[in-house]
């Protein structure tokens, strides 16, 4: 190849690097911008209630509220900044994981570091698929993914021998295990099994260093128990009660229900989309590997096509969604399969022989990581696991080992990074156009409103803004003070409680609509002091689809509504809680708290006999 052709190939390769870098920045800027938009009154709001004051709850299976509580304090409770911090943290960990894995696959790599970093960043955008329903506030879902990425980074650094790198790796595994337990104990158990098997198969296992990881995890867990509950026994009781409460509600979280194998079904449009991504990515990689101007032009053209889709979506020029159904997240397999086939096609005569046992073990673990992430949920494991699809992407990247070994550069994989970014943008578009339990695309929100005790500024739909403003005005005009305890009988309004500055007692979300909702609400409030129960105001939704029966109050010693005075009323917004019909909500304040407290104490004294 003459010098002019060589310069052209280099120039086109640099253009691909710049394009991927722009795509990464575009996706991040897109999400950070919309961090100020929208709010879900149920799940997301319960996360806010949890992390704003987790210490008032005596039972919980997940402890994410305690982990994120310092972040909440540091950011002054600002909702948009919490979302932005969560997005940035998730991406940075994804970037760190992707970079560490690419380095582990190519330890002999001495040049092309820019291509390595940019490729890793592009692949890391797949971690942001976590937000494809637009629940960006820190939660047990985000903590679970972040914990798995931390543990995976530790696994890649860990070795059988004792060195600074290995010690850091084993310690990081322990930190990841602790975080996984704080997010979802079921995920932590599955992670421990997967990690142990992987370490044994890859011949990295060292009993002494395993003890270091275990001691790190147990030490952090012990410290957490002392900081949260003051003793290990109280913390254990918290967890046990959390498990018992999960059984009460009947939401599909029993051992028999979580030990299952789920299926998935991709409709024809989804299959065709995966095939299209696969073929386009293979063509782009072929062009990148050809070292000829025509091949480089083909590669850049396809890569720019990937970027064009990403940019058009992120810049708001396209408002349609993919519409591929509940298993839309499996679209990422177009990239995974492209990476795997690249290894087979371009990896030489015996491509698999250059992949070590340790690398195979890691790839297999990464294939299972999304299911480890989803383990314990009542949602379909494939649907839920797609939020951790960065591990599927990296598992596919493993088969590029023979190619990168021959090329001694990761630049050829940039089309895969751009394809990953395009899939990420397509999936995020669904969340921003159809945010969970919100009535319109976020881009149509135009009403600015400050909500909550820290007056967080958000841009909401007119209906949602009016709903919150009416509730806040009614509460304030009735003399409601920030921090006043409230029992939510609507079964679906943690967002309203957070907006008016209430203390949601018993549970962060007194959830209705399940067979055991009443039993759960009663059990949770039995762990709240009678003084607080008696002083609590009531949020009531007559005939609401998820309303908690009023008999809950009589079981606590309070006569509702006889011993309460209506303090305010307002109408819900259409779409709030996922229901189109507008409903009436009523706020009541107690008129005889001393009598209610005495009755509550009498009931509990009788139950203790």
TrEMBL record:
This is Transmembrane protein. The chain crosses the membrane at residues 7-32, 55-75, 87-104, 116-135, 178-202, 209-228, 272-289, 296-315, 327-346, 358-375, 381-400, 412-432. Keywords: Membrane, Transmembrane, Transmembrane helix. The keyword Acetylation does not apply. The keyword Transcription regulation does not apply. It comes from Neorhizobium galegae. It comes from the Bacteria. The lineage of its organism: Bacteria, Pseudomonadati, Pseudomonadota, Alphaproteobacteria, Hyphomicrobiales.
């Amino acid at each position: 190849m003459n010098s002019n052709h060589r310069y052209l190939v280099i120039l086109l390769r640099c253009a691909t690097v710049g394009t991927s870098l722009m795509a990464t920045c575009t996706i991040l800027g897109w999400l950070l911008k919309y961090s100020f938009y929208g709010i879900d009154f149920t799940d997301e709001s319960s996360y806010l209630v949890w992390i704003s004051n987790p210490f008032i709850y005596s039972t919980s299976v997940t402890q994410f509220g305690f982990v994120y509580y310092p972040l909440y304090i540091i950011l002054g409770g600002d909702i948009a900044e919490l979302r932005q911090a969560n997005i940035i943290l998730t991406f940075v960990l994804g970037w760190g994981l992707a970079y560490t894995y690419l380095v582990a696959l190519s330890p002999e790599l001495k040049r092309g570091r820019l291509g390595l970093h940019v490729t890793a960043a592009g692949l890391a955008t797949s971690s942001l698929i976590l937000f494809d329903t637009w629940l960006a506030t820190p939660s047990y879902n985000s903590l679970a993914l972040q914990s798995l990425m931390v543990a995976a980074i530790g696994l890649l650094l860990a070795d059988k021998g004792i060195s600074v790198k290995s010690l850091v790796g084993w310690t990081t595994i322990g930190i990841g295990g602790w975080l996984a337990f704080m997010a979802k104990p079921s995920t932590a158990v599955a992670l421990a099994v997967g990690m142990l098997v992987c370490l044994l198969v890859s011949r990295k296992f060292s009993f002494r260093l395993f003890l270091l990881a275990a001691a790190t995890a147990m030490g952090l867990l012990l410290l957490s128990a002392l900081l949260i509950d003051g003793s290990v026994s109280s913390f254990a009781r918290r967890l046990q009660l959390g498990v018992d409460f999960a059984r009460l509600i009947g939401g599909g979280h029993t051992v028999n229900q979580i030990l299952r194998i789920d299926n998935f079904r991709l409709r024809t449009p989804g299959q065709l989309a995966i095939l299209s991504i696969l073929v386009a990515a293979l063509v782009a990689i072929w062009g990148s590997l050809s070292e000829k101007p025509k091949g480089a032009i083909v590669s850049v053209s396809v890569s720019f096509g990937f970027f064009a889709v990403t940019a058009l979506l992120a810049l708001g020029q396209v408002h349609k969604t993919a519409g591929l159904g509940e298993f839309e997240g499996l679209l990422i397999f177009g990239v995974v399969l492209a990476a795997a086939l690249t290894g087979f096609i371009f990896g030489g005569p015996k491509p698999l022989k250059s992949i070590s046992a340790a690398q195979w073990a890691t790839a297999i673990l990464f294939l299972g990581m999304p299911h480890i992430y989803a383990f314990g949920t009542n949602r379909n494991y494939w649907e839920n696991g797609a939020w951790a699809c960065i591990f599927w992407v990296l598992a596919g990247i493993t088969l590029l080992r023979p190619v990168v070994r021959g090329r001694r550069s990761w630049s050829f994989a940039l089309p895969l990074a751009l394809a990953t970014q395009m899939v990420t943008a397509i999936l995020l578009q669904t969340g921003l156009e159809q945010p969970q339990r919100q009535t319109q695309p976020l881009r149509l929100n135009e009403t600015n409103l400050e909500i909550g005790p820290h007056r967080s500024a958000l841009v909401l739909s007119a209906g949602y803004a009016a709903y919150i403003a009416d509730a806040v005005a009614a509460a304030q005009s009735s003399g409601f003070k920030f921090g006043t305890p409230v029992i939510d009988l609507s079964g679906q309004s943690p967002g309203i409680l957070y907006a008016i500055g209430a203390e949601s007692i018993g549970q962060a979300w007194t959830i209705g609509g399940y067979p055991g909702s009443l039993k759960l609400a009663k059990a949770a409030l039995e762990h709240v002091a009678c003084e607080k129960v008696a002083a609590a105001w009531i949020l009531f939704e007559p005939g609401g689809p998820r309303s908690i029966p009023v008999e809950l109050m009589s079981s606590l010693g309070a006569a509702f509504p006889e011993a309460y005075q209506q303090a305010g009323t307002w109408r819900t917004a259409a779409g709030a809680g996922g229901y189109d019909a507008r409903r009436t909500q009523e706020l009541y304040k107690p008129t005889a708290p001393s009598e209610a407290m005495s009755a509550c104490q009498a009931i509990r004294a009788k139950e203790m006999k």
